[in-house]
User: Fold this.
Amino acid sequence: MGQDLEKLKQRWPLLDYLQKQNWVAQAAGYDSEFVGLCPLHEETQPSFYVNARKNLFYCHGCGQGGDVIRFVELSRHLSFRETLSYLEQQQSAPPGNAVDSAAVLEEAVTFYQKQLDRYPEALRYLEQRGLHDVALRQELRIGYAPGACLRRHLTALGYPLDLLRRVGLLNPLGRDTFYARVVFPCCQGERIVNLYGRSLGDAFPHRFLPGPKGGLYAWDQVQHYPEVIVVEGLFDYVVLRQAGFHHLTCALGNHLSACQFRQLCDRPRKVYLTFDFDANGSGQQASQRLANRLRARGIDSRCVLLPDGHDPNSFFVHGGDAQQFQSLLEAA
Ligand SMILES: [Zn+2]
Assistant:
């Protein structure tokens, strides 16, 4: 057993695994040490260290640490045994066929969309988060994953289980990955490349399928605008769209990937960063640093300050309107 574990870990170096999950790292100054934002807890300043030689990680923010197996256990909420079978499967999985994955994701999104109207708790949740516009809901193809029904649906359509596992729609045990989550497709051009699932409850609120998130949200619709608002979450995105702001995109998190950063810099434009601010000020600092990096690339960037403790979503849910938000942009 011990030997097998060692072999498994050798075949799955931690750093490779993390990079495959889009972890963005910088050299930490020491030989084979890397640092980046912790994938296990929300943070705006990097405190997650990986030693590639020792094949170990440690996060100074949440105190978690260990090897690749421990990381998979924590990040995917799997038991030790499930983690081993997951890693074995990742090993043997043939390279993903992009056409197959896009087709099955398309099918899953259509299915989730149909579920939404059948679950009052999901509709109530959307209302609570301030999304009232049914046409926008349909345009963004928002759906609901009740759990324990996608597998049956997709296998009945002839999709093989190993494809569903590989794409991440099913977990290693073969069960639906998304349970009681509102689901948004993330697209690159026309093609769905990932799904974001927001749980109705507070436990593990944000979840993506493994694999790239696909750049800035709906980027091909906004890239030609001379001014672009960037928000952190999709529920910030929906309330602003609903309020009539179209020059808008979402970073799907509070940290821009290298690809997203390149997108923002691909031509001269003005960028409004509207990220959540936390009480200790680290959000503000991170926003400011990002603004500086963008300015260094010739992008006129502004940090938008929302009233105390608000993100764009809560700002609108608590009665803020388009005109007030426009004044915040102008004051930035
Ligand atoms: Zn952490």
Q: What stands out?
A: The chain has 15 helices and 13 strands. The chain has three domains: 2-92, 98-208, 219-331.
